[in-house]
Design goal:
With about 150 residues, the chain is α+β, with helices and mostly antiparallel strands. About 35% of the residues lie in helices and about 25% in strands. It has a five-stranded antiparallel beta sheet with strand order 1-2-3-5-4, with helices on one face. Pfam families: HATPase_c_2.
């Protein structure tokens, strides 16, 4: 894509849903990888961050969302690419129950690092937990702004 086509290109979307299980999470992540390569001009580093962040959110759905239910529920992955805004938004949602992480020491090898990882990978991360499910929103700049090299 050229710079001119980026500013005139319409936003594109990717939406998939399925059972909140490991097989579906893997399939969604694989489909997202292909879509990012084919439908966007996102560089490999940002693409890797998106895949890892989305993968963590999907894994949380699989592991935690339906823990108190008798059977697995569903999860949905929605991604929007806006070339003009140079951004990608990722939304992972479920209809399960939020489980507040138990406080652990930062150096505990058994401590989950998924939420911290999502915050570190995305330019902006929000987690909206409500009685009817949880939604994780991750936002990424596709072309980070480079700052001039000033000798101070």
């Amino acid at each position: 894509m050229t710079a001119d086509s980026l500013t005139s290109a319409a936003p594109v979307r990717f939406t998939r849903a399925g059972a909140a299980d490991a097989v579906t999470a893997s399939e969604l992540r694989r489909a997202l990888r292909v879509w990012l390569r084919e439908a966007t001009d996102v560089c490999a580093d940002v693409r890797d961050n998106i895949l890892l962040g989305a993968g963590e959110a999907l894994a949380n759905c699989v592991e935690h969302a339906y823990r108190t239910h008798h059977r697995a529920g569903t999860m949905e992955l929605q991604v929007g690419y806006d070339p003009a805004a140079r951004s990608i938004s990722v939304r992972v949602s479920d209809r399960g129950t939020w489980h507040r992480p138990s406080p652990k020491k930062p150096d505990d090898p058994r401590a989950s690092r998924g939420i911290m990882l999502m915050h570190a990978l995305a330019d902006h991360c929000t987690i909206n937990a409500r009685p009817g499910g949880t939604t994780v929103c991750l936002n990424y700049a596709t072309h980070p702004i480079t700052l001039p090299d000033n000798d101070v």
